[in-house]
Write a structure and sequence with these properties.
The chain is of the alpha+beta class and about 200 residues long. It is built from seven helices and four strands. Strands 1-2-4-3 form a four-stranded antiparallel beta sheet, sandwiched between helices. Helix 2 (about 40-50) crosses helix 5 (about 115-130). About 30% of the residues are buried. Bound molecules: flavin mononucleotide.
Length: about 200
């Protein structure tokens, strides 16, 4: 084990209104400790995803998981699907995943317009469960879905949606620039007045 020396500084969301502490504690690190995530922990994350709501309870989400220490070939294949930037910091993550959505309803084969939405909801719960367990999940759009389909044998009718890096956050000092600076930059969000409307579109709360 070559753990980076220090844990990252506090990344708790500076929320403008009080929110559940678990939500405030979730963030997307790029530096991870070189520490395996036990199988039991991964099962707990999938269990959290399992309890997401979904359109007609179709549960379109799937996860292909590769642990760097246990499935090194699958991990390397998954890493190879990532964009160059993401690959640089994901190489040391203990776990990589691809979230995959089934694009039709199992009960009648009609297109499921909400498959990605529901898969995102499941991944959000997975990320919150990770945070509750001292882990963090970093979701990524920066990967090649065609490459992932081929490398991971994802069948037609299932869309690779996001890649996810997972583990215990490590020290920002373990990262090269520009990622080191990003790891400690202030966490920012649009104010709720910009997206929460009252009664009709554009009416500021
Ligand atoms: C669907 C999705 C795609 C993302 N793609 C990437 C990505 O390719 N690379 C990356 O470094 N971060 C990616 N992120 C992470 C976001 O940049 C991050 O969630 C955002 O900056 C807010 O930071 P926080 O998660 O720490 O609150 C992605 C997040 C989501 C939800």
């Amino acid at each position: 084990m070559t753990d980076a020396p220090a844990a990252p500084s506090d990344r708790t969301a500076p929320a403008a209104y009080p929110i559940a502490p678990l939500i405030a504690s979730r963030w997307s690190p790029r530096s991870f400790l070189d520490r395996e995530v036990p199988e039991e922990a991964l099962k707990r994350l999938l269990e959290a995803a399992r309890w997401a709501p979904s359109c007609y309870n179709a549960q379109p989400w799937h996860y292909v998981i590769a642990r760097r220490h246990r499935e090194p070939e699958a991990f390397a294949a998954l890493l190879d699907c990532l964009s160059t930037g993401n690959r640089s910091w994901c190489a040391l993550a203990p776990v990589l995943m691809i979230a995959v959505a089934r694009t039709d309803f199992p009960q009648n084969g009609s297109p499921n317009r909400h498959a990605w939405y529901d898969t995102g909801a499941a991944s959000a719960l997975l990320a919150l469960q990770a945070a509750a367990m001292g882990l963090q999940a970093h979701q990524m759009a920066g990967f090649d879905p065609g490459k992932a389909r081929e490398a991971l044998a994802i069948p037609e009718g299932y869309d690779p949606v996001t890649a996810i890096a997972l583990g215990q956050p490590g020290s920002p000092d373990a990262l090269a620039e520009p990622y080191r600076t990003r790891e400690t930059s202030p966490r920012i969000r649009r104010p709720i007045e910009e997206f929460g409307f009252l009664g009709r579109w554009g009416e500021v709360f």
